[in-house]
Fold this sequence. Notes:
Layout: E1 2-5, H1 11-22, E2 27-32, E3 37-42, H2 50-54, E4 59-63, E5 83-85, E6 88-90, E7 94-100, H3 107-120, E8 124-126, H4 144-157, E9 161-165, E10 179-182, H5 190-198, E11 203-206, H6 213-225, E12 231-235, H7 253-260, E13 265-267, H8 269-273, H9 279-289, E14 293-297, H10 315-331, E15 335-336
Parallel strand pairs: 7-8, 7-14, 7-15, 8-9, 9-10, 10-11, 11-12, 12-13, 13-14
Antiparallel strand pairs: 1-3, 1-4, 2-3, 5-6
Helix pairs in contact: 3-4, 3-10, 5-6, 9-10
Amino acid sequence: MIVILKPQVEQERIAQLMASIERQGVAIHYSQGTQETILGLVGDTTHVDEDWLRASDIVADVRRVSEPYKLANRRFHPEDSHIDVAGKKIGEGNFAVIAGPCSVESEEQLLEVAAAVKRSGATCLRGGAFKPRTSPYSFQGLENRGLELLREARRVTGLPIVTEIMSETQLDDFADVDLIQVGARNMQNFRLLKELGRSRKPVLLKRGLSSTIEELLMSAEYILAGGNDNVILCERGIRTFEKMIRNNLDISAVPVIKAKSHLPVIVDPSHAAGIAWMVEPLSRTAIAAGADGLMIEVHNDPKRALCDGAQSLNPEQFDGLMAGVKRRVAFEEKKLL
Ligand code: PEP
Ligand code: MN
């Protein structure tokens, strides 16, 4: 981190600032030029608050030269990480397909979809029990009954279950969920992230609708900083000016995240596309871009779905998609879990 000081500042004030920076455990390389005085902060600057420095009336500018995230950073962890979800190791050359309905709607619906996605070769079963809906009048999910049905579907199929948490107060109820999803709308629910950091549960962290890649990595850092290493990231499309698609799948986020971080990245083409026919081409792109997995919405009767029917594949369409996924994953020399 580089701190540029304003011209003609008294030495005593500079010395005071330097002392308070050094108290935070970083060394300072002091450089006085003809025009500017520059402090180069050396060491782990992740704890040094840029805004605190900017607030000083002798500071002209602050520039970060290294990333503000450390535990998520590939620089300090060059090898790819894999995350163990109920014995299935996601990442590091292993490819996962998480499939299932947007929401758990009934026993019949969930068991039918679960059996179908299992037959087609899915790795995990997804299904929302608590739904973050834009309108309070839309279906909000079956809540705890939905969790029970997911457990039942796991018993019947053997598939690990993935479902979304909305608040840290639910952690006890989610104790036996195999992979806890933090949805796009909660990516910066910092209290939730901190509590997930205290747990040791695998977490699927989805990128916020308008969040930068760095913000996603900083949210992952919250969980990692609490001592929980089990984080999988998910690109699910971001908001842009484009109106022809629900969200814009930021496919470049995949190679960027893979370069910047060691954490596995999966792609959710369903929420990006918003429409079923686009799920397959976006899945293809995600595999080619280096994703470690996909999350696909599948419904036994998409036209009657209580949530996200337009983007849901029926079991037959999902089966067709999986045939292509198997070929492409093999081409990338990865192993489908
Ligand atoms: C979901 O996966 O069901 C969901 C609500 O996704 P997102 O948080 O990405 O909108
Ligand atoms: Mn959905």
